[in-house]
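Human: We require from you a standard protein entry with sequence in single-letter code and fold as tokens, and nothing else.

Assistant:
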Amino acid sequence: MDKEQVFEFINKTGDEQVVIEVEKDTKFKGIVLISKMNECNISFEVRVHEGGEADLYALVQGQEAERGSFRVSMVHLEPNTRANVQVKAVLDGQSKLTFNGLIKVLPQAQKTQSYLREDVLLLSKDAQSLGAPQLEIEANDVKASHGSTVGRIDDEQLFYLASRGIDKEEAKKLIIKGFIDSIINQAHVSLSQYN
């Protein structure tokens, strides 16, 4: 597999619909960074052809009263495909994110492996996340799964860091950094290819 596609989508606002074709025996890596939702309605459809591999990493940040909708569809069209979708969101203020994730495996897409995960960290009591990860499997020789978590910063984590001499605000920053590092690291690896 010597063909590789890299796609970066950084800080778009408004309505965006993106369709990406991962051609036969091609490896695709997508990085989505949204630092301001600004009423965004963003939709990605990644269509994976025979022997293709797709990795999509997304980081969404919501603040104040921002609203946003983010949809990812990973569609396996043909056999022997692999895909991984990892979405992380950090929401503060009264921000609200609606996430819809779909793994769709067509009948001819045997030997598919696909995973979808969404993790949300709420920084305020008024921030909200509505997640709907879904599987639509029409083939019988498939490994596919999905997961979704929503949580807040744990008081025990803050206490532990305070016992090590780290003040509360710095501790929150460290926890947030640890939460988003897997996405940021993927973006750095991708961006470093162009330097």
Summary: Helices lie at 155-163, 168-192. The two ends are 23 Å apart (CA to CA). The longest strand covers residues 112-122. Residues 190-195 have pLDDT under 50 and may be disordered.
